[in-house]
Design goal:
It contains 13 helices and 36 strands. It is of the alpha/beta class. The chain folds into five domains: about 100 residues, no CATH class; about 170 residues, 3-Layer(aba) Sandwich (Rossmann fold); about 100 residues, Immunoglobulin-like; about 200 residues, Class I glutamine amidotransferase (GATase) domain (Rossmann fold, 3-Layer(aba) Sandwich); about 70 residues, Immunoglobulin-like, CATH 2.60.40.10. The strands form nine sheets. The chain has a nine-stranded mixed sheet with strand order 17-16-18-19-26-25-24-21-22, sandwiched between helices. A five-stranded parallel sheet has the order 6-3-7-8-35, sandwiched between helices.
Length: about 700
């Protein structure tokens, strides 16, 4: 019954022919056969035979009647040309059609008809040919190019289609549909269609979250590839934020195996400045990822350009991962000394003689606040008081991402300290405790001491404390003890505020308070605090995105625009630049589309090195099946969205079904012939 309700007829007037069903019924009701009398002597046996013949004859007649009625009905239906309506309600008039061709890297995969991109271009041509010459078309790719933002004719569409090439750009189906809908809404055509030709990768093809315009018919055409396996480098990072000349560095790479087989004894090669410097082997099971670390020694001062490489086929665009780093990174340190401190020389000798630091010092009586914005770490060394002006500047500095280290003075104005500490969300000072006490433990779970010790020895010699300030206990999640004393008080605490950090020592730096400054723990502690104050520059960026690149400069470059130039000089773009937080920020505005090494140049002078890699979204070879797409459509009850399955039928026929519906006249003609054949068989098999 549901089938009949869904069915429409192209020529319903032929249904009058159903009246012909009356003919076999009349023949059945009025049997016109003439009977002939036959005389027989013994009628007892004839009665039994007559009863048996009557039951068979009636069954035969009813079956023949049913076959005749069904045959006539099916024949009439065939002439009336029944069909199940398609999803698209076609209105007479001009049509506006937007066709999306997915030209991302995954469309380089192949099937028996060639690459998926060539498949989609062939199908797009077939789609266009099913429409009229007066209809208007739009071609859209992942590049969202300006030339594709206008309606064109059939001939122009085919010309533009021939120019479509594989691109590093990646767009979600939601973004694509939104772009198409926005474009079609500017058209006055009453018939608006969207076609999506893609492999429908799972990570970019969530249709159910798309805001669909129900007045526009959308057809999804999945193009499947042969089984594809892929192993690729997903991301890269250094173990430490600073890379120094002649030091050993460890770089990590996440290798992902998107295949159905385990990878064993594969090689990860590291190239620095075009020379192979290291090699690591790795195993990664099917469907999993592996953190592969590889160590090397930095041999070049300044800019270093690296590449990590694996070998994998047939997909190779994600086998190389570019990165860059600069060994001339410096930490700008400012030490503000109290007038009575005797330890200023300790900090000066530590930082001034180390090429890692750019060292400056002020006295608390003549603080230069203008250098705060150009400083990474500030040390307050035994100030008697912390003024409200200094507190305000420190708050701005820490919120912006700076680090502050505080050594209180044993003769501190506790009220001024606590006022400042309250503003900086630090624990409050209670009093000075002059009891000798031992250091109990170091918090190795926090990152300050990570990598400082080759191995952790619980019996290691720790600093001795002769006097220390007691602080209020705090339940603030932003405060934690790094080094603890035996009485539960902290020797060093870490406190986070905004984007920065404040390290508070409970002891003065004075040697009469502890032996910390002469202890082996002091130098690595202060240097690690300084290193962690750096905002590490990204070692790579992604292509085809609007990446923001920070420069250590406040120039506006108005007379001399900056250029981002690829090493091979084949790419040269002028980025947008803005002044943000005392630095210059460059905006790539999706202009970088090729992976590799680049330089930021000012008047042909390199001021920064960059590395760009293709987005790894395209490396995940998981695709939506037709059932997955249909499930999304059904869940959101999208009546105007359909999935066109190609299989062995041509796209033209599939489109005809979507537009005109599924025609059933052939089916009913075959059924009519079958019922006639069944009638003949019944007549021959059921003999009286």
């Amino acid at each position: 019954m549901l089938f009949l309700q869904l069915m429409n007829f192209l020529f319903p007037t032929f249904l009058i022919g159903l009246a012909a069903i009356a003919i076999p019924i009349i023949i059945h009701l009025f049997n016109f056969r003439k009977y002939k009398k036959v005389y027989f002597t013994n009628v007892q046996f004839l009665k039994e035979l007559k009863q048996e013949s009557d039951s068979k004859s009636k069954l035969k007649e009813w079956l023949i009647l049913a076959m005749r009625i069904l045959a006539i009905s099916c024949l009439v239906f065939a002439f009336a040309q029944p069909f199940i309506p398609g999803k698209v309600k076609t209105i007479q008039g001009e049509k506006a059609i937007s066709i999306y061709i997915d030209n991302s890297f995954s469309m380089e995969s192949t099937n028996k008809k060639g690459t998926l991109l060539e498949n989609s271009k062939t199908l797009a041509t077939e789609i266009v040919n099913t429409f009229n010459a007066s209809d208007k078309f739009q071609l859209l790719t992942n590049d969202f190019e300006g030339k594709h933002q206008r309606f064109i004719s059939k001939e122009e569409f085919v010309e533009q289609l021939n120019d479509v090439k594989i691109s590093s750009a990646t767009k979600s189906i939601s973004d694509v549909i939104k772009r198409q809908q926005d474009f079609l809404q500017n058209s006055s055509a009453k018939n608006k269609r969207i076609f999506l030709l893609s492999d429908f990768q799972k990570n970019t093809s969530v249709i159910s979250k798309t805001d669909i315009d129900t007045n526009i018919a959308i057809s999804c055409i999945p193009i499947a590839s042969s089984e594809v396996n892929n192993v690729y480098i997903d991301s890269v990072w250094f173990e430490t934020p600073v890379q120094q000349y002649e030091t050993q560095q460890i770089i990590h790479a996440i290798v992902i195996n998107k295949s159905n087989k385990d990878i064993e004894n594969a090689s990860l090669k590291l190239y620095i400045n075009d020379a192979q410097v290291s090699l690591a082997s790795f195993n990664v099971s099917a469907g999993n990822k592996k953190d592969v670390s590889i160590s090397f020694t930095v041999k070049v001062k300044g800019i270093n350009k690296g590449v990590l490489k694996i070998e994998d086929y047939p997909i190779t665009y994600d086998d190389n991962f570019f990165f860059s780093f600069n060994t001339q990174t410096t930490i700008k340190a400012l030490v503000i000394n109290g007038k009575d401190t005797k330890t200023a020389s300790n900090f000066k000798s530590l930082m001034q003689n180390d090429s890692l630091f750019v060292y400056k010092e002020n006295s608390d009586a003549s603080i230069d606040y203008s250098v705060f914005s150009k400083t990474n770490i500030i040390v307050l060394n035994e100030l008697n008081t912390i003024t409200s002006g200094l507190t305000s500047e420190l708050q701005k500095f820490v919120n912006a991402g700076g680090s502050v280290v505080i050594f209180p003075n044993k003769k501190s104005d506790i009220i001024s300290y606590n006022t400042a500490f309250q503003t900086l969300l630090l624990p409050q000072i209670i009093k000075l405790d002059t009891t000798n006490i031992k250091t109990q433990s170091i918090n190795f779970e926090q990152g300050l001491y990570e990598g400082v010790f080759d191995k952790i020895d619980q019996r290691m010699d720790l600093p001795k404390v002769f006097e220390h300030f007691e602080f209020t206990k705090t339940t603030n999640n932003n405060s934690q003890g790094l080094v603890l004393l035996q009485n539960g008080q902290f020797l060093i605490s870490l406190n986070t505020l905004g984007n920065g950090k404040v390290y508070v020592f409970s002891i003065p730096s004075d040697e009469t308070s502890s032996n910390l400054l002469k202890h082996a723990l002091f130098v690595p502690t202060l240097i690690k605090m300084a290193i962690l104050s750096l905002k590490p520059s990204p070692v790579y960026y992604k292509t085809a995105l609007n990446e923001i690149i920070a420069l250590n400069s406040t120039s506006n470059f108005s007379d001399k625009p900056l250029h981002i130039v690829k090493d091979d000089k084949k790419v040269d773009v002028i980025p947008e630049h803005r002044l943000l937080n005392n630095t210059t920020a460059l905006y790539t505005q999706n202009q970088i589309t090729e992976a590799g090494h680049y330089n930021v140049e000012e008047n042909n002078v390199i001021i920064k090195d960059l590395a760009f890699n293709f987005d790894r979204k395209e490396s995940d070879m998981n695709f939506m099946t037709q059932e997955d797409l249909q499930k999304q459509i059904d869940e959101k009850d999208l009546k105007n969205v359909s999935v066109i399955e190609l299989n062995e039928k041509s796209l033209t026929n599939a489109l005809q079904e979507v537009n005109d519906g599924k025609k059933l006249w052939k089916l009913f003609l075959i059924l009519a012939l079958m019922f006639l054949a069944a009638e003949i068989l019944i007549i021959r098999l059921f003999k009286n």
